[in-house]
Structure formats: C-alpha cells, structure tokens
Design a protein that fits this description.
With 230 residues, the protein is mostly helical. It is 63% helix and 4% strand. The chain has 8 helices and 4 strands. 19% of the residues are buried. The mean pLDDT is 89.
Length: 230
C-alpha cells in the first residue's frame, strides 16, 4: 500500500520556521557573547560589580558565541539586526496565521487537551517514542500544542519586549516599558530567562524531530508535504 502523503504546512508557516530558526540561532550566539561582557544577573533598576546578583553566569566558550572571539560591539550589531528580523517575522506570521486560521485550526488548546488523563497518555507515548498515536496522526498532540503556544505567544514576545526595554532609544520613546518589567536589570534577567527557555525548546524540538523521523519532518518544512506514518 502506498504511503499517505498530506499537505501539512502552508508556505507562511514554512517561511517563518526557517527565518525564525536562523534568527534564533544568531540571537542566542550573539546574546551569549554580550553576556560574557558582564555575566551577572540582578533584579530591580540597578546592578554592577559589587551589587548582589541572583545569578552568576558562566563565561560561555567561543564555539557558542557570535563572533567566536570576544567582541562586544560586533555581538551587539548581530543581536540588534536579528532582533528586528525576529520581531517583524513574528508579527507577519501572526497576522497571516490569523487570516488563514492556522492558529484556530491547528494550535487551539481545547479542554480535552489539558485533561490529566490526556496529558498523561501523551507523556507515556513520548517516553515510548510513539509520536503519532492520536486518532488523526497528522494533528498536533497536546504537548506539541502547549509547547508551541508557550513559545509563540509567551517566550518569543517576552524576549522581544524585554529586549526593547533594554534599548536606550526605546526608554526615551516608551519610558513606561521598563517599569512594566520592574527596572532595567529585571528586564535583563527576564530577557535571559526567556532566551534560555527558547534555547531549551529548540534542543528538545530538534531531538524529537530526529527521533520521530528527521527526513519526514524536514521535508514537510521544505515542501509542506508530510508522509503519515503507518
């Protein structure tokens, strides 16, 4: 019997996926380069060498940072440019996904998705490396929906807004933004936490793509077509 192939990802989703992948990769690398300039995190408005830090970050190795050699100015240039790419691509993706009903059709979290029994079944299936057990195997399962919603609607907007709060130009235009986050150092701490969550999601996402069949997943994000597993 020939395999069933469906059209799973529309072009807007595929374009945003790859633009987002490049932007996040460069933003994490350049952000770690910026962190190496002062690897301490504080809460409130102020924080410097002799103030109490709630977190002492490691000095990140050259193979993780952009550029590989320590250069704060170049790290900032990469970071600011791709922050703009991330923000504009997210805005475009959200507008298109509302118009073509991608969010409502594929990512809407329903009551049964968050029931304890349903979530427990999804966790057991993932632990057994069974990723396509739902009645409609082409649909996103509950864990996928919850993780995608958390990243698209919480973590990425948070990292963008806290990044804006750290910009002196935005402080002049929107002085209230820093107050929303409780001060510059609080915004910096939340920015780093959101980045860490996005980085962890990326690692887990790549691992699950490999375990679930990497070529089928990559092909679906290149052509939109996905082979339904037997």
């Amino acid at each position: 019997m020939p395999a069933t192939v469906i059209y799973r990802h529309r072009i807007a989703t595929r374009l945003w996926h790859w633009v987002n992948a490049v932007a996040i990769f460069i933003l994490i690398g350049s952000g770690l380069g910026i962190s190496n300039a002062h690897p301490r995190l504080y809460w409130g408005h102020y924080g410097a060498n002799f103030d109490h830090a709630w977190a002492q970050l490691p000095r990140f190795p050259a193979w993780l940072t952009i550029p590989a050699s320590y250069n704060l100015a170049i790290s900032r240039r990469w970071h600011l440019f791709f922050a703009l790419v991330l923000a504009l691509s997210l805005l475009a993706y959200m507008i298109v996904s509302l118009l073509n009903r991608h969010f409502q059709r594929d990512l809407a979290v329903r009551g049964r998705d968050i029931s304890a029994a349903h979530l427990a079944a999804d966790v057991r299936a993932h632990l057994d490396f069974r990723f396509h057990d739902p009645e409609a195997p082409c649909d996103y399962n509950a864990l996928q929906k919850l993780s995608y919603v958390a990243i698209v609607f919480v973590a990425i907007p948070l990292v963008i807004l806290t990044g804006l709060a750290l910009s002196p130009a935005m402080n002049a235009a929107w002085p209230w933004l820093l107050e929303v986050f409780g001060g510059r150092q609080s915004a910096r701490s939340l920015h780093f936490i959101a980045m860490a969550i996005i980085a962890l999601f990326t690692v887990v996402h790549l691992a699950l793509v490999i375990l679930a069949g990497w070529w089928n997943g990559v092909r679906s994000m290149l052509t939109g077509r996905w082979r339904v597993p037997e």
